[in-house]
């Protein structure tokens, strides 16, 4: 083949590889949308709608469109998941010139397959961008600047939080897409939440991006900055209490494997994903049962569905603070990067979260989720037997669990959400509340100053500062599939029974179980704590060897229900908290307990409304909804930051196994750590961004193909170079005609140089955490020198001039071939360094603080 044609072929192949690898579908149907997919969504939507300066179009939610459950299960149950996975689609909620648009986009056909305008109540999640834009608007708003000046404050020290305002019976026309901005004062503190500036009503219309209402009522005492600091570097002695360093020591490294988004640990296998609204999403959690030698289904899908945080102050500055955090602000969108060793212990594996910004451009929250093994010094099971003469037995197994964690900082509050898997088969959902209280300025510094009969709506926690009473309701959606989709919900009541007269006993009473299977939704709404009952999800089609229905029971945490009246507007919107537990039949559209459109919702699309349909739930694919509730009466210990307050619940196997599933677990070797000991697992592990792979592949191919081209061009030059027979002699001087090896040598030089420049400059500086480029530079220099010299010897050497000192020179056999070999080894060295470690490729967007 002619060398020119060969070069064209190489470049053509490269172009094909580039274009074909630009879109690689992920492997698992529940994998979160990748950077590439988000970009594709943006491109297709921008082409399909008149997006531009005169047509406001904003992305409010972009996520994976829930794949059809039956298709997912068919794929999942096929041997090695070989059958075709369900179509991969994105679900987009956008604001399109004042309307809410729902778009479903299919990736394989690269087409919009569904598009409709939402006509009901409520608005989509707020984007970070529009909240930031609204604060920038107000800080330049003249009446606001004047008010601040009137109070003798400095505008440059003001920061805002953005608050949704709920719904208080307004008609749909009156319910505009607006938010309220709440100003806080820095001036000597970074703990702005403890210095609110009250007495102002600032409303911003988000669609028009203008201040639609501004009122300044009064000046209220502002709490001082003194005592609000929480950074250790700024605090003064005395310090304490002193804690010794603690570490989980795993000399053999972590015991779990992360393959893409699939996590395997002990007897568990599950998929973990990130959603901008829910945060962590756990799917297809299965347990390996050694008795039957296979994985058994437990949880099809579990995640945060909604949070409800109503504050208990009905005055003008506070009445509207009744957040639906996940629906209003996005519990994933507000999630923060986790700090290695403090947010998550040594040995944790971190994963990034990728989501679409307001204009559809992908943004990343690095290390947004972590997975780690937890050894808290608990006992998994034990027994000491001392009753047998001459024999004492003690068997103890320490408890180790696997935790998937996310921290959502919704303004002042930090919510720690844990999904904890135990080898015994339990899954524990944990919610930790920490951060900063939301406070109200008052004139008092002591409880004795409070007027008789006056309600200050909270606790004086510092000078002029009241921590306002409030609730936290955190609702999980748990699509349990116990050994299959056909499940029932059993309320197993423990009933006090009088001993029958027929039995000769001095005992008057005992309790016994009265199981009742809930047939319809109304029978499965539970207010915890009212009676003694076990709540169990069973598979009535599967029984143990002893005839018990296999199941999972709910071990609930402290029971807290709503205290607002049923007809109060916030409670109508958050009616999903009316019961702690609900069971609904699986419905693909029933995901968000407060409604798909939570902001300014009117309570017509909540779990409470769906449940009113009273559908059949016996032997059906059912979903459990559980609300973790806290009534929070603030205390002085919550100031200036609050120690974590924890709650949660557990799903525990009940007659799921034939016996204790951890009976044969060997005792874990627990080692103590000493100074100077380097633990292998201490290294922070970072999950490679899977979406970075196509990009890495492109660079890989680029260098590989150019290296290969250089090799073949050198080889070709080797065969075509000037030979002794070409040499002419006029008696005095020598002459050599120009040869094809000259062109081939130049082409090889270009190829090897391009690959080297791209490899070293672009990749090594931009992507690699290595400086092992020295060897490639030596190789490269030798190769370039040989090829340059060789090529120039194949140029025309004219009479009287020759190549050097009027003498003609020929390239020795093997020089070009050796150069080709050197080119290949240079590229191989670069590729080796490349494979050594690839940094994530996505640009990290720094997110500003918001509420
Ligand atoms: Cu609280």
Automatic annotation (TrEMBL):
UniProt keyword annotations, A-Z: Copper, Disulfide bond, Manganese, Membrane, Metal-binding, Oxidoreductase, Signal, TPQ, Transmembrane, Transmembrane helix
Residue ranges occupied by any Copper amine oxidase N2-terminal domain in the UniProt entry: 28-115
GO biological process terms held by the UniProt record: amine metabolic process; response to abscisic acid; response to auxin; response to jasmonic acid; response to putrescine; response to salicylic acid; response to water deprivation; response to wounding
Necessary cofactors: Cu cation
Transmembrane segments: 697-720, 741-768, 774-793, 814-836
PROSITE patterns xref list: COPPER_AMINE_OXID_2
Residue stretches making up the Copper amine oxidase catalytic domain: 248-663
Lineage top rank: taxon: Eukaryota
Copper amine oxidase N3-terminal domain location: 124-219
Listed EC numbers: 1.4.3.-
Cofactor note: Contains 1 topaquinone per subunit.
One GO MF term attached to the UniProt entry: quinone binding
Transmembrane helix found in the keyword field: yes
Residues modified to 2',4',5'-topaquinone: 413
Active site: 325, 413
Keyword Disulfide bond: yes
Post-translational modification (record): Topaquinone (TPQ) is generated by copper-dependent autoxidation of a specific tyrosyl residue.
Signal sequence interval, chain numbering: 1-20
Name used for this protein in its record: Amine oxidase
């Amino acid at each position: 083949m002619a060398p020119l044609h060969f070069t064209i072929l190489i470049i053509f192949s490269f172009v094909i590889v580039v274009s074909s690898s630009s879109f690689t579908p992920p492997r698992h149907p529940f994998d979160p949308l990748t950077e590439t997919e988000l970009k594709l969504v943006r491109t297709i939507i921008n082409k399909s709608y008149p997006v531009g300066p005169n047509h406001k179009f904003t992305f409010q939610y972009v996520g994976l469109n829930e794949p059809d459950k039956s298709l997912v299960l068919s794929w999942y149950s096929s041997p090695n998941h070989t059958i075709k996975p369900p179509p991969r689609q994105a679900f987009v909620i956008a604001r399109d010139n004042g309307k809410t648009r729902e778009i479903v986009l299919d990736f394989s056909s690269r087409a919009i397959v569904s598009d409709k305008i939402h006509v009901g109540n409520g608005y989509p999640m707020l984007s970070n961008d529009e909240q930031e834009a609204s604060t920038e608007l107000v800080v330049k708003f003249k009446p606001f600047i004047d008010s601040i000046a009137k109070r003798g404050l400095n505008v440059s020290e003001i920061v805002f939080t953005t608050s949704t305002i709920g719904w208080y019976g307004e008609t749909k026309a009156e319910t505009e897409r607006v938010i309220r901005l709440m100003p806080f004062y820095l001036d000597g503190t970074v703990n702005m939440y403890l210095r609110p500036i009250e007495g102002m009503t600032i409303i911003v219309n988000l669609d028009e991006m203008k201040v639609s209402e501004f009122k300044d009522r009064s000046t209220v005492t502002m709490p001082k900055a003194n005592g609000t600091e929480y950074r250790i570097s700024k605090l003064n002695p005395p310090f304490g209490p002193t804690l010794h360093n603690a570490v989980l020591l795993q000399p053999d490294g972590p015991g779990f494997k992360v393959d893409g988004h699939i996590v395997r640990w002990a007897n568990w296998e599950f998929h973990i994903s990130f959603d901008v609204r829910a945060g962590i999403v756990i799917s297809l959690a299965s347990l390996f049962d050694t008795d039957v030698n296979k994985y058994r289904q437990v949880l099809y899908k579990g995640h945060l569905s909604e949070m409800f945080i109503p504050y208990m102050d009905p005055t003008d500055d506070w009445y509207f603070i009744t957040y639906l955090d996940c629906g209003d602000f996005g519990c994933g969108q507000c999630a923060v990067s986790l700090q290695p060793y403090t947010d998550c212990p040594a040995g944790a594996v971190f994963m990034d979260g990728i989501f679409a910004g307001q204009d559809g451009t992908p943004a990343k929250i690095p290390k947004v989720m972590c997975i780690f093994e937890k050894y808290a010094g608990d006992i998994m099971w034990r027994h000491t037997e001392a009753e047998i003469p001459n024999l004492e037995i003690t068997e103890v197994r320490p408890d180790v669990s696997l935790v998937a964690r996310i921290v959502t900082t919704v303004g002042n509050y930090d919510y720690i959400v844990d999904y904890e898997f135990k080898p015994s088969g339990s899954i524990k959902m944990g919610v930790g509340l920490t951060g900063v209280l939301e406070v109200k300025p008052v004139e008092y510094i002591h409880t004795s100053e409070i007027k008789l009969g006056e309600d200050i709506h909270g606790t004086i926690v510092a000078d002029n500062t009241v921590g306002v009473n409030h609730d936290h309701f955190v609702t999980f959606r748990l699509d349990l599939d116990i050994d299959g989709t056909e499940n029932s919900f059993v309320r197993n009541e423990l009933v006090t029974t009088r001993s029958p007269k027929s039995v000769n006993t001095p005992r008057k009473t005992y309790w016994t179980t009265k199981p009742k299977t809930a047939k319809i939704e109304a029978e499965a709404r539970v207010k915890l704590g009212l009676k003694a009952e076990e709540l169990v999800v069973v598979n009535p089609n599967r029984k143990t060897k002893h005839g018990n229905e296999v199941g999972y029971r709910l071990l609930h945490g402290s029971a807290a229900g709503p205290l607002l009246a049923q007809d109060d507007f916030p409670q109508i919107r958050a009616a999903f908290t009316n019961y702690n537990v609900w069971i609904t039949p699986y419905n693909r559209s029933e995901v968000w307990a407060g409604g798909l459109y939570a902001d300014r919702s009117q309570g017509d699309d909540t779990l409470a409304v769906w449940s009113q349909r009273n559908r059949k739930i016996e032997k059906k694919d059912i979903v459990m909804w559980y609300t973790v509730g806290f009534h929070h009466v603030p205390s002085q210990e919550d100031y200036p930051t609050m120690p974590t307050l924890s709650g949660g619940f557990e799903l525990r196997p009940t007659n799921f196994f034939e016996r204790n599933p951890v009976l044969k677990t060997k005792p874990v070797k627990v080692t103590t750590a000493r100074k100077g000991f380097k633990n292998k697992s201490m290294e922070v592990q970072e999950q490679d961004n899977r979406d970075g792979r196509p990009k890495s592949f492109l660079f890989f191919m680029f260098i590989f193909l150019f290296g290969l081209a250089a090799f073949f061009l050198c080889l070709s030059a080797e065969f075509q170079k000037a030979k002794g027979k070409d040499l002419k002699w006029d008696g005095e001087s020598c002459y050599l005609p120009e040869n094809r090896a000259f062109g081939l040598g130049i082409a090889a030089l270009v190829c090897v140089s391009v690959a080297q420049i791209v490899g070293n400059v672009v990749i090594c500086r931009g992507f690699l955490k290595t400086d092992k480029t020295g060897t490639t530079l030596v190789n490269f220099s030798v190769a370039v020198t040989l090829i340059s010299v060789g090529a120039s010897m194949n140029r025309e050497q004219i009479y009287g001039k020759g190549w050097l000192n009027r003498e003609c020179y020929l390239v020795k056999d093997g020089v070009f071939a050796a150069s080709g070999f050197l080119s290949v080894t240079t590229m191989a060295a670069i590729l080796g360094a490349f494979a050594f470690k690839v940094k994530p490729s996505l640009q990290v967007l720094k997110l500003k603080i918001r509420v």
